[in-house]
Amino acid sequence: MSSRYTYPEAAAKLRVEETWLRRHIKKLPHSKKGRVVTFSEADLDAVDSLFHYTPATGPLAPPSTASAGAHPLAHLKPLPGRSLRRA
């Protein structure tokens, strides 16, 4: 039988706060028997993949094969200024 982890054990394994697991339990894969909530290794792997973030730019970003073109936010235009009406 595979290992089952309780809230504190799963939080330690995922390196998150136990309260974070409890707050997000409805979105996370888990098993529940009565009031006892447990997480399997597959559940913890799924949680990790659901919330995994890989930066697109910066020093931690994976090397890009695309050439350095225009800035990714260059297409954005500023909003028009607000006019102040005084009565």
Explain this structure to me?
This protein is α+β, with helices and mostly antiparallel strands and 87 residues long. It has a domain at 4-50. It is built from three helices and three strands. It has helices at residues 7-14, 18-23, 41-50; strands at 4-5, 31-33, 36-40. Strands 1-3-2 form a three-stranded antiparallel sheet. A hairpin with a 2-residue loop joins strand 2 and strand 3. The termini are far apart. 6% of the residues are buried. InterPro entries: HTH_17. Residues 5-46 form the Helix-turn-helix domain. Residues 58-87 are annotated as: Disordered.
- Looking across the biggest beta sheet, what order are the strands in? 1-3-2
> Unreliable segments (pLDDT under 50, ≥5 consecutive)?
none
Q: What string gives the helices and strands in order?
A: EHHEEH
Instruction: Report how far apart the termini are.
Output: 76 Å
Instruction: Please state the structural category.
Output: alpha+beta
Mean pLDDT level: 87
Principal-axes geometry comes out as elongated
Proportion of β residues?
A: 5-15%
- Radius of gyration from CA coordinates: 22 Å
Protein name: Helix-turn-helix domain-containing protein
Region (Disordered): 58-87
InterPro entries: HTH_17 (IPR041657)
Pfam family, one: HTH_17
List keywords for this structure.
3 helices, alpha+beta, elongated, HTH_17, 3-stranded antiparallel β-sheet, 87 residues
Short description:
The protein is α+β, with helices and mostly antiparallel strands. The chain has helices at residues 7-14, 18-23, 41-50; strands spanning 4-5, 31-33, 36-40. The model has no long low-confidence stretch (mean pLDDT 87).
